[in-house]
Amino acid sequence: MLLSVRRPFRILPPVMSKEIVVSGIRSTGFLHLGNYFGAMRNYVKMQDEYNCYFFVADYHSLTTHPDPKDLRANVYRVVAENVACGLDPEKVALYAQSDVPEIPELYLMLNMLAYMGELEKVPTFKDKVRQQPQNVNAGLLTYPVLMTADIIIHKAVKVPVGKDQEQHIEMARNFVNRFNNRYGELFPEPYPFNYSSELIKVPSLDGTGKMSKSENENATLYLADEDDIIRKKVMKAKTDSGPTEHNSEMPEYIQNLFLLMGLVSTPDVVDTYKKAFNECTIRYGDMKKQLAEDMVQFIAPIREKTKELHANEDAIKKILKEGAEKARASASVTIAEARKLIGINYY
Ligand code: TRP
């Protein structure tokens, strides 16, 4: 005889929920080595440990009125580049911001809790006002509000971002607290996150500042650069006639070359050249040749994988579609809760 056992409730195994991570990727311009070591490598590392939502910030980019054709091509390229760098669309939700309508909905709600005075004070806004006085639109002003919606739509607690974004995350915490105080506890406070306390700044090849799109193109290595371009850029890096005293202090531009070498060459290669520097036998020409070859070895596979994926539009569309589905599954739950707390759920 079959006994049917009625259990008053099902006993579920304990759920080990992973912490939630959100980050937005800007869809402007080509990615360079600074982006790789500053951001993407972090993303790739995080995908195994956390529940990650990474999106292309296409709505944010509308603040500068991009040409629609360019915008679309940029979004596809960003997806291809990020996957080529090791982001696994099976492990993370990789999506376009504009494919998740719950984000602008939450943004609208949050706009009612954000004040003109605080938004006008934001340094990144003031920079934009200076840079593009002819286009100071409301989207620029409320950029931190949209960013908050991006993050808290998934109730993220960790946001991998650079130093320049930390103030935006602080504002996100303010908006979160304002919402929670007014309507009831819904959102956790998000914090900036990075693996190393000291963020890696990839120096540019001309010895001034870091690699960046806006500063010096020729001193910046792009993940799309062809081999001979990489070689040319590296060989042009600033050096001098070499040290004349044993164990002398390294000039900053030489330290930078060693830093770059540390990122792409093997430790024994780095040690060999360090020793040569200390013994005044270093030949910078040789060092740069070595660095150039190791850089080529590093960048070429990423570049080729990007090209291959970029050429496969169907694959990219599939990634974006599946990413959007994952993101909306999470976002729709949050937005329903927010609507309920606010009192705008009518049936
Ligand atoms: N503002 C970020 C940048 O300029 C991009 C971004 C948009 C973002 N929304 C975000 C980053 C949400 C983290 C979380 O790089």
Describe the model.
- 53% of the residues lie in helices and 6% in strands.
- With 347 residues, the chain is mostly helical.
- It has two domains: 20-200 and 312-342, 3-Layer(aba) Sandwich (Rossmann fold); 217-305, Orthogonal Bundle (Tyrosyl-Transfer RNA Synthetase), CATH 1.10.240.10.
- The strands form two sheets. Strands 1-2-3 form a three-stranded parallel β-sheet, sandwiched between helices.
- The mean pLDDT is 93.
- Residues 22-24, 26, 57, 60, 147, 150-151, 159, 161, 165 line the site of tryptophan (TRP).
CATH topology of the largest domain: Rossmann fold
- Residues in β-strands, percent: 5-15%
Give the tally of β-strands.
5
On the 0 to 100 scale, the average pLDDT is: 93
**Helix/strand/pairing category:** mainly alpha
What CATH architecture of the largest domain would you give?
3-Layer(aba) Sandwich
Describe the structure concisely for a colleague.
This protein is mostly helical and 347 residues long. The two termini are 47 Å apart. It has two domains: 20-200 and 312-342, HUPs (Rossmann fold); 217-305, Orthogonal Bundle (Tyrosyl-Transfer RNA Synthetase).
